[in-house]
Every structure is written in C-alpha cells, then in structure tokens.
Design brief:
heterotrimer, A alpha+beta (620), B alpha+beta (132), C alpha+beta (79), A: alpha+beta, Aldehyde Ferredoxin Oxidoreductase Protein, subunit A, domain 2, 3 domains, six-stranded mixed beta sheet, 14% strand, C: 79 residues, alpha+beta, Ubiquitin-like (UB roll), 5 strands
C-alpha cells in the first residue's frame, strides 16, 4: 500500500453492539475531497447515518478524526474533531478538542475512529498501536469526567491520551461534552451524549508509530519560521499569561458580553471576571496543547464551601456564559461552576445558558420554587447554579426539560420564554451578544451546527466597517465560514493565525510539505465550501421543512433594544435580518429558503447529493 | 543540571522536535526526552532527560556506551539492546522504542532547548556548548 | 517638539479593514499616548485587543517616548 503522507493511512471502525473491530485503508478520494478532521466527520455522518436516525440510538455514528497536520512538526497540530448527528439539533453536529489526543491517534496508526452501535455494558475503547479492545468498565460508570480520566491514567499510564464523558453524557443530556486533558472539552452539539448512548465511557489511546510526511526538509523550514515568528511575537506573553480570559474586558467594552441571559451585553461587574483577576486570584499553572507555544490553558484552583478543586479554565466562553450571563460575582465563583460542569460532563456554553435561562424564567415567575424543588434560582447565585447543573446532569426535576436544551425547556415552560431561549437550531448561543454586530448575528444564524461563534467570528469586521451597516456583511461571513473551518479539517489550531497574526501563507506552504499534494490554499477553500454544503444538505435531507426558519435568532434580539452599556438602545430589525439572509443565500447559491440548489451542489462535486435531494423533492 | 520545570506547560514540542532532528520522523515516542504530567498529583509537569552523568557507561555489559565530548553516547552497532542501562539509569532517561534496536537518549543536540517556548530546557543548550 | 513613533498592526488585524497598513510611521506631539497613536493610525476603539509597547502590555493611556514601537493585535476570536 502506498504511504499516504500526512496521514496514518487507516480508519478504525468499531461496532460496539457486536464488539467487532475492523480497519479500512484511507481512501484516496476521501482525502482529496474532504482533507480530514471535520471533513471526514461530515462525509461519514452524511453517508452512513440514515435519515431519521435517533441521535441517541445505536444507528447514529460517532466519528473521531484527526487531520493531516495533527501530530506533525508544526505549531499546535492538536485538534481532534468529534462528529455525529447531534441530539441537540437533530442535524449534523461537530465539536473539536485540543490537548494531546489528535497526534496520539495518528501515532497509534489511525486517522479516524468510527464508533457504531451500542455496547451491551458500560465500556471504554482501548487503543495501543495495533491492539484495539472494547473493555468493560462498570466501575467507571457514574464517575465524573475528570476523575474518570485520572482513574484510567492511573491504570494505563500517563502516555495514554484519554477522552471521557461524565454523568451528563451517560444520561443523555443533549449538551453533554467529551472531556480530555483535565478540562478541555469538545463541548458543543452533545457529542458526550452520543458517546453515552453507546455505553462508551472513554477512549484511551497510545501510539508509538511515526506520521510520514512528503518533504521533511521543507516542513522543517516552514515550521522553524513559524516557531521563530511566534517566539518573536510581542503579544505571545499576554497569551501565555492570560490565555483566552483576556477577552472578557474587551468584549464588555464593546457591548458584546452576554449578561443576564443576553438581556444585556454589558456587565457592570466585569472587572471581577477579568483575565487579570484570573491570573492574580486563582491561577496555578500554564498548560499547553500539543506543540503549542501559546499555552492558553490556565490550570486554576477554586474554593467553595470548604472544598478546594483544581480545573483548567475558565476561558472566555465559560466566563461569559457562566459568569456575566448568570451574573456571578467573582472569577473564583466562575471557576468553581466551571469545575462542576467539567466533572458532570456538561458544555459550559450551553450549561451556562441553560442556567441563565432558568434564572430569568424564575425571576419573571414563569417557574417557581415549587418547580425548582426549592432552589432560589436568582441571577448571581452560585448555590443555585450548582444545584441546577446537578439536576440537569441527573435529568431530574427542572433538570429534565433543561437537559434537552433551552429550546425544549421553553416549549415545556411557555409563558413567552421562547423569546429569550437564546439558541439557533437548538444549540445555545456562545459568548458574543450581537445586536450591535450584524455580521456576527448572521454568523450565529447561519453557523452550520447552531449558534456557535467559531465558524465565522466577525465582530471586528462590524466595528471596522460600521456596526449598523448591513450591506456586504454576508460576503465576509461566508469568507470566514470557509477559511476558519479549514483548520478543523487540517487538525491544527487556528489561534496562531487569528490571534497572533501568523500569516495564512505559512499554512498554505505546510500543506504540500506535509501531504505532497499540490492543492493551493484556494483549492482547499473550495473543499471547505464543499463540506459546508454537505452539512447543509444533511439538514435538507433530514427534514422536509428544514430551511430559512432554522436560521433565525431568538425574538429578544430583534424586539428588545439593548437596555444599557456602550450600545444602549441599539437594536437590529427584522428587516435587517431578512436582508442579511437574502444576501447570504444568494451569494451561497442557495434558494431564498436556504436550500442549496442542485447547480451549486454539482459545482462543488456533490452531484450524487444533488441527485438524492432532487429525487426526494427537497431542492430544485 | 537544572531545568526550569516551573515554567513547563507540558506541550511536548521537545519530544516532537527530538524525533524530527534525530530520526527524521514525527514521533514523540522516538525521542530522548519525556514530558510527564503530574497535574493530578502536584499541579505541575516533569521533564525526564539525560544529564550525562555516565552511570550507564559502567553498567553496559558490552561496552557500547562511552563519553565523547561530555556527551554519553550509545554505539548502535555494539548495543545488544539488553536493557541493563535502561534499568540502571538513575533518572529513567533512556527510552526503549519497539522500532529502534537500541535505547534512545539525549545526544545534546540542543534543538529542544532552542525551540522550547518557555526556556525550560536552557540547561540542555549549555551541554551542547560543552560538547561542541 | 514632535516625536517619531511606529505602529505595527498585526497582519490579521490589518486585513479586517481595507486600506489599513501593517506599518504606520507617525509624527506625534510630545506626551502623546497609545490612544493617540492608534487613532492616528486609523484604528477605532474596539478594533484592537492587545497593545504592546517595548515588550510590555500597554493601554490607551500609556505615554509614548520617541522611537517607541506600538504593536497592535486583534481582540481574541475564540477557538
């Protein structure tokens, strides 16, 4: 078999129902069409998960994939992508994780793992090079996500890289996370619940093999330039000190910090949650992903009611959704709440949002102490936060509707709460309130997995060209929706580019050196657009009514002006939103209902997908 | 030899570049240095690497290990991969790998020290100076 | 008396706004601050995240000295 440069060359397929483990050579067209990581995930989920499959049933598949840059000599080839049909949205979902898993998977000899079926008893997947076993682990079931990682490291050794779920994942909370490296999460879209539904508590990997590259001398030259440029970067030290926590102050200053369930975008107490306070009050040690000079991971200590805990974080998203959005009083309180979510195996973004939604419902009288089982669910209460997330993870009391996401909880509780259930497509909104940032609003509305910021982050574009300007914003969002997810395909972190300004040319030069393929950066962007459309097609195939209605923000954002802060009184109108969407769909080559046309799919090499959707009468 | 372990972030770039420079491969297990996470117990990282103390020289039953320019070197042609040096090393700094038929150890090339983003390994760069 | 100051704008930040140069040489009055330099370079508030002067993190009120290099980076944009 020809060595495939940049790849381990093998897909590992594990059927948990039968206990069967099989290996498939990595297909050339899979690599040339979909690159890796998120691209592999989108491909396998579209091709192998049948329409209508229960996301938490044995028919769903979990695809864990590294990319060609993962584990290779370059800055932070550290990203592992988890894809499946999402229990939060019923659509394609993915989430990625840093740490040390991606390279380890390739060193063990695999570019991806496809997990199928459901194990008869709680189990974990053991991988050490060619030795692959599904091992029963009843004793770990019910254990916290991080405690599980420790238990497996104690048993297997520190060189094993381990992904785990907590009780929330076991119980099918739709925003349950996958956890790795003591506090890093693939948090979004409920990938932890998919693992739990398969009775899969953990994946443990160790590998001793090499990842072949096409041109080692060329790779070393580019990588050396990149590492040197990072070392000389004057902002590196800020990143090493504060990581992502530094953004809290900035976000508050421009009116984007989610506050009190996104009613406000300015938190009067933001200083208490700043990166500086994180560093001075709770920081213990800097903690890096694989081969990364930035070390944005901040290992911290938090005390609460006589208990001292250690955790990684909180970073910005957590500080925003748990901190200001629930109006907590200090960075240490945020850190403890972060720790609770990590152990329970809950996404801190959706988890924070679910608690904030509960607090608003409680303060408005939509739910009462009778509903909450006595919890005074008021903004600012860490006690309430802790009790509510425990109920969510256990799916008991108010935790049951909340465990299905804020959209479902609003449907259960009514009282107009749909208007402030802050989500798109069933996925809770991440850390940027966007009434004063039309392109960012559009980015959230059209993000393929639901309201997540990582596909297109464009607030600075809004600030640069005008925060009320609508025209031209869609083009920027689309450009970012192709370039940023490319990093998730390549299996490399994009922070070195987006934050420290490492030029994209470096990555364009890395690609041929690693893979031996001659694709230009523009060629890669076309592949990224293909993946974007394949993900959209998944939704179109899934539901006859899928389309424009799924791309809407909660009503709060176009009916309530911002009450205070730097953007007081600003708002975005329903008409603005429609104009943004029209322009976006037109530029994408989709119809005005947000469905890709057959012509667009064919242009992107998805002719068979076009034929399938045409035959179903879903597109024209 | 004193490493500035308090600054280590556990990124393992040292392991990766070691395999790249000394074996021409991307393979952190094929390296003469190890980063060990002690986060769970002590909230810190450890780095395990040879300090060129030479205890293994006398331990080697076939005389395959010698000191050259202050650097302890294993002659791959003489080495029988018996594992005695691995067992003897007081620092646990000789590493076996299934694809390499002799123990892997630091040869003081200094590349890890050059790339370490935190200067944890500056002391290893000094060894290179002595060696060259 | 005026002083010469250089503003170095991170490439990823310069790309956000058409016409924004990566390097701007400025002639500023004595006592000028980082905020003055950024405004003169065409950077509106909110557009930048980190500012470093002489290897140290600075803010808008930091006073500049002749020959200073002001390095500007975008606000964080998350994973």
């Amino acid at each position: 078999m020809r060595e495939m440069h940049g790849y381990a060359g093998t897909i590992l397929r594990v059927n948990l129902s039968t206990g069967t483990v099989s290996r498939e050579p990595l297909a050339e067209d899979l690599v040339s069409d979909y690159i890796g990581g998120r691209g592999f995930g989108a491909h396998f989920v579209y091709r192998e998960v049948p329409p209508g499959a229960d996301p938490l049933g044995p028919g769903n598949k979990l695809v864990v994939a590294a990319g060609p840059f993962s584990g290779v000599f370059l800055p932070s080839g550290a990203k592992t992508n988890f894809s499946a049909k999402s229990p939060a949205t019923g659509l394609y979902g993915d989430s990625n994780i840093g740490g040390h898993l991606a390279g380890e998977l390739k060193y063990a000899g695999y570019d991806a793992i496809i997990v199928e079926g459901r194990a008869p008893v709680p189990s974990y997947l053991f991988i050490e090079d060619d030795k692959v076993e599904v091992r029963p682990c009843e004793k770990l079931w019910g254990m916290g996500a991080i405690k599980t990682e420790k238990a497996l490291k104690d048993e297997l050794g520190d060189e094993f890289q381990i992904a785990t779920i907590g009780p929330a994942g076991e119980n099918g909370v739709v925003f349950a996370s996958v956890n790795h490296d003591i506090g890093r999460q693939a948090g979004r879209c409920g990938m932890g619940a998919v693992m739990g539904s398969k009775n899969l508590k953990a994946i443990a990997v160790r590998g001793t093999k090499s990842v072949p590259v096409a041109d080692m001398a060329g790779l070393r030259k580019v990588a050396d330039e990149m590492f040197s440029a990072l070392a000389a970067n004057p902002a590196l030290k800020v990143w090493q000190d504060q990581g992502l926590a530094q953004v809290t102050t900035w976000s508050n200053s421009i009116g984007a910090l989610p506050t009190r369930n996104f009613r406000q975008n300015f938190y009067e107490n933001a200083e208490a949650l700043s990166g500086e306070r994180m560093r001075s009050d709770i920081h213990v040690r800097d903690k890096a992903c694989f081969a990364c000079p930035m070390a944005t991971g901040k290992y911290c200590r938090a005390r609460y009611r006589g208990e001292t805990v250690f955790l990684e974080g909180p970073e910005y998203e957590t500080t925003a959704l748990i901190g200001s959005n629930c109006a907590l009083g200090s960075i240490e309180e945020v850190a403890y709440a972060n720790y609770m979510c990590d152990e329970l195996g809950l996404d801190t973004i959706s988890g924070g949002s679910a608690v904030a939604f509960t607090m608003e419902c409680f303060e408005r009288g939509i739910i009462t102490k009778e509903d909450t089982g006595g919890i005074e669910a008021r903004f600012g209460s860490l006690d309430a936060f802790v009790e509510i997330v425990k109920l969510i993870a256990a799916r008991k009391g108010i935790g049951e509707p909340l465990s299905r996401g804020v959209r479902a909880a609003a449907a259960a509780w009514g009282g107009g709460s749909e208007d402030f259930a802050i989500q798109v497509k069933g996925l809770e909104w991440s850390g940027y309130e966007s009434r004063g940032a039309p392109s960012m609003m559009l980015a959230y509305m059209t993000c393929d997995i639901g309201a997540h910021h990582n596909r297109a982050w464009s607030i600075t574009h809004d600030i640069a060209v005008g925060r009320n300007v609508i025209d031209g914003k869609a083009a920027k969002v689309i450009e970012l929706q192709h370039v940023r997810p490319l990093f998730d395909c390549l299996g490399v972190c994009r922070l070195q580019w987006v934050e420290l300004g490492l030029p994209l040319e470096y990555y364009a030069r890395l690609y041929p050196a690693v893979t031996g393929r001659q694709d230009t950066w523009d060629d890669l962007l076309v592949k990224s657009e293909r993946i974007w459309n394949l993900v959209r097609a998944f939704g179109v195939r899934e539901r006859a009514d899928f389309g424009r209605a799924d791309d809407q923000p909660p009503r709060r954002f176009y009916t309530e002006p911002v009450p205070d802060g730097p953007l007081a009184r600003s708002r975005i109108t329903r008409e603005d939103l429609d104009r943004l969407l029209d322009e976006y769909y037109d530029l994408r080559g989709w119809d005005r209902n947000g469905r890709p046309t057959a012509k667009t799919l064919e242009r992107l090499g998805l002719g068979d997908v076009a034929a399938e959707l045409l035959a179903m009468g879903r597109i024209s | 030899m004193k490493l500035d372990l308090d600054r280590c972030t556990g990124c393992k770039l040292c392991q990766l570049v070691c395999s790249v420079v000394n074996f021409g491969e991307n393979n952190p297990k094929k390296a003469g240095i190890r980063v060990v996470s002690r986060l769970f117990t002590d909230a810190r990282y450890d780095v395990v690497v040879c300090d060129q103390c030479g205890v293994c020289i006398d331990a080697c039953p076939v005389g395959a290990i010698s000191m050259e320019d202050d650097v302890v070197r294993i002659d791959p042609d003489m080495c029988t991969n018996c594992g005695v040096c691995v067992e003897t090393c007081p620092n646990g700094a000789l590493f076996s790998h299934p694809d390499v038929d002799y123990p892997i150890k630091c040869v003081a090339c200094g590349e890890c020290a050059r790339l370490c983003p935190r200067g944890v390994l500056d002391a290893l760069a000094d060894v290179r100076k002595v060696a060259s | 008396m005026n002083m010469k100051v250089t503003v170095e704008i991170s490439r990823v930040l310069a790309a956000i706004r058409p016409g924004l140069a990566e390097r701007v040489e400025l002639d500023l009055p004595e006592g000028a601050t980082v905020g003055d330099a950024l405004a003169a370079a065409g950077l509106v508030q909110g557009l930048w995240g980190i500012v470093v002067v002489g290897g140290k993190v600075a803010d808008v009120s930091t006073k500049l000295s002749p020959g200073d290099k002001v390095a500007v980076f975008p606000p964080v944009s998350g994973g």
